[in-house]
Specification:
By secondary structure, the protein is an alpha/beta fold. It has helices spanning 13-22, 31-41, 58-66, 80-89, 103-109, 130-135, 158-170, and strands at residues 48-52, 72-77, 96-100, 115-120, 137-145, 175-180, 186-191. Helix 2 (31-41) runs parallel beside helix 3.
Length: 193
């Protein structure tokens, strides 16, 4: 079996890509990650989802398409300029809240309902405030991270941070996990206790 090279992209995807190019937003998640995200989200009817690192809204578009009508989605990013694209695009979608915030602060002080899935696509929630982020996942919920295989835009020293993160996460006895040498390098976790 081959990877699907004809992935059907979500609504608004093309316009988000176009707006991303205009803003020189160079960190979009790839199609395979998006497709997996949509599939996972669709497994959680009336779900509660957190997208850390809105960017221009590409991962949000996949989550929005996987989520059913009674789901709720929060997306956070520190960069209001990138995020404005997502705000304009999804303004009519009442399931979605887009917050402009520093992820470290947001994750530290959030005291609302736990999440069925967290996609951590920024430093906060992944390399920073990791324990607090994992606390926010329901038992049975998913934690997904990408960009674990070497990427051209990695800053110096990032590779050892990734190795340390992977090792830390593998020690967690409250999650089961699968690694994917696929897409940009993913790890998928399900909370078991
Ligand atoms: C890899 S991009 C997100 C890509 C997006 N999820 C997508 O699918 O296209 C990482 C994002 O994290 C945001 N970011 C960086 N530092 C942050 C922080 N401290 N808190 C929240 N967001 C941050 C950046 O502005 C950037 O938009």
């Amino acid at each position: 079996m081959l990877d699907d090279e004809q992935i059907i992209v979500p609504k608004y995807y093309a316009q988000l890509l176009e707006a991303s190019a205009k803003l020189q937003f160079s960190m979009p998640s790839d199609l395979k990650t998006g497709s997996l995200l949509r599939t996972l989200v669709a497994s959680k009817p009336s779900g509660h989802f957190l997208d850390i690192g809105t960017g221009t809204g590409l991962s949000l578009a996949w989550i929005a398409e996987g989520a059913d009508e009674s789901s709720r989605i929060i997306s956070i990013d520190i960069n209001a300029d990138f995020q404005q694209v997502a705000i304009d695009t999804f303004s009519d979608d009442l399931r979605i809240s887009i917050d402009t915030a520093d992820g470290n602060e947001w994750l530290t002080f959030y005291d609302g309902e736990q999440f069925d899935l967290i996609f951590a696509d920024a430093m906060p929630g992944k390399f920073e405030v990791l324990d607090q982020t994992l606390e926010l996942i329901k038992v049975g919920g998913f934690y997904l991270i990408d960009d674990l295989l070497p990427q051209p835009n990695w800053p110096e020293g990032h590779s050892s941070r990734v190795d340390a993160l992977v090792e830390t996460l593998k020690q967690r006895s409250d999650f089961v996990q699968t690694t994917f040498n696929w897409s940009t390098g993913l790890m998928l976790f399900t909370k078991i206790k």
